[in-house]
């Protein structure tokens, strides 16, 4: 079953997502994949990645680096599309696609990423998607940031439609908004 988890930073989303993906992998006896989307830009990012690797250690995840072109993962040798997948995070994936490493900006990346996320969810059927809830701030940002926030909200809505289970986290508390799990 596809599961979507959204919430603020440092609220336990990643750990809960790991538990859910692991449970699916065990229940269905399928491989367990962690889709790493972050392209580290500084020491803080590298430390965050190190903490996430340590948190997953011993869980049975095979880490697959896929910072761009999510559906390209389905064609990688050794990746079983019927496995259990944890994508962490939609936020980083969209950022990578919209603000390219070479300095280019793709203002239309949100639609493409949303379409890829839906296609990936439909192709796998056992994916847990993690996203950051960053679009409720009343402040108005520059055009680039506003487009990114709108695009992330668009991606999140697309996932909420296709995922039978939608979970929101706030202050470490999890609330199922769309009940799909038994």
Segments where pLDDT lies below 50 for 5+ residues?
Answer: none
Distance between the termini: 11 Å
Biggest beta sheet summary: 7 strands, mixed
* SSE order, one letter for each helix or strand: EHEHEEHHEHEE
Distinct helical segment count: 5
Structural classification: alpha/beta
Question: What percentage of the residues does DSSP assign to strands (E)?
Answer: 15-25%
Protein described:
The protein is of the alpha/beta class and 182 residues long. Helices cover 41% and strands 20% of the residues. The chain has 5 helices and 7 strands. It has a 7-stranded mixed β-sheet, with helices on both faces. α2 links the parallel β2 (32-36) and β3. α3 packs across α5 (143-162) and α4 (109-124) runs parallel beside α5.
Features:
182 residues, 41% helix, alpha/beta, 7-stranded mixed sheet
């Amino acid at each position: 079953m596809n599961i979507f988890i959204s919430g603020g930073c440092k609220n336990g989303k990643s750990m809960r997502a790991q538990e859910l993906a692991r449970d699916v992998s065990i229940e269905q006896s399928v491989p367990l994949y962690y889709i790493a989307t972050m392209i580290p830009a500084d020491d803080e990012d590298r430390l965050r990645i190190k903490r996430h690797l340590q948190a997953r250690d011993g869980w049975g995840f095979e880490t697959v680096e896929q910072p761009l072109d999510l559906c390209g993962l389905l064609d990688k040798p050794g990746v079983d599309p019927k496995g259990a997948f944890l994508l962490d995070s939609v936020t980083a994936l969209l950022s990578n696609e919209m603000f390219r490493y070479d300095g280019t900006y793709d203002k239309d990346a949100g639609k493409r990423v949303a379409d890829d996320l839906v296609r990936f969810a439909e192709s796998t059927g056992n994916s847990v998607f993690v996203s950051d809830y960053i679009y409720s701030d009343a402040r108005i940002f520059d055009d680039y940031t506003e487009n990114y926030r709108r695009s992330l909200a668009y991606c999140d809505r697309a996932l909420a439609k296709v995922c039978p289970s939608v979970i929101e986290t706030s202050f470490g508390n999890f609330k199922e908004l769309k009940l799909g799990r038994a």
